[in-house]
Amino acid sequence: MQDHASDNAYHYNVMRRAIDLIDARDETLSLEDLAREMGMSAAHFQRLFSQWVGVSPKRYQQYLTLGHAKALLAQRYTTLEAADAAGLSGSGRLHDLFLRWEAMSPGEFARKGAGLIIYYGWFDSPFGEALAMGTDRGLCGVAFAAEFGRDVTMADMCARWSDAIYVEAPEKIAHWVDAGFEGRGEAVLHMIGAPFQIKVWEALLAIPSGHVTTYSEIAGAIGNPRAVRAVGTAVGRNPVSFLIPCHRALRKSGGLGGYHWGLPVKRAILAWESARAEG
Fold first, then answer.
1. Which of the residues 72, 222, 235, 246 is marked catalytic?
2. Phi/psi class of residue 15: alpha, beta or left (left: φ > 0; alpha: ψ in -120 to 50)?
3. Which pLDDT score, from 0 to 100, does residue 86 have?
4. Is 140 known to be catalytic?
């Protein structure tokens, strides 16, 4: 029997193939047609997706369509001022999981990680294989390797703090990773970035799961409404994917915008969260 980790990887790979199929067709695929294209029986396909996200494949297919981002903006748009007033930003209870975070000082950031030991390991996630990194103070990085592979993902993350010492020790950070992906326990984050970036990442933490906001809304929330492009860059440089939910930031037009680890991963995460919110 497959363990939970291999189940997650299998589910993501199936869903990733489903995205390609849906994009290649103009019409909505029936359960039977989609299952046939995936090489599965309709019953197995229905059971697999219902088990993973709690909704039927037909409903999940709607979440994967390119128009889903516009629907989210229309139905689940979050104003960050309201979220802040509700006490969602900063430390404390955030959305589905318990997050506590602290930021590295500007001086520490300027040293590019010199003298810092960063532990890393490869973990399974609902969205394929994930590279997680952390210091003694918390997780500082989460990246997804499904689109680009291990080598590119590792090089990308190490280049962010080029003078740090990297030690492969997944056991050092596994409890935070499990808390982040499973929603149980406390996930502690150690944000390593420039002051402007950290302000943007803090604003992202105020977006509830299953909801979205816009780059311009984030710019306004951090007191710099004209800095939409700079906000977009900071969102793209978010080192702790999923836990700092940069995937919930969309263009005002309803476009998905970018995603550092590949747009299929962004769409998968938004669809997964929408299904969980509905459930």
1. 246
2. alpha
3. 43
4. no
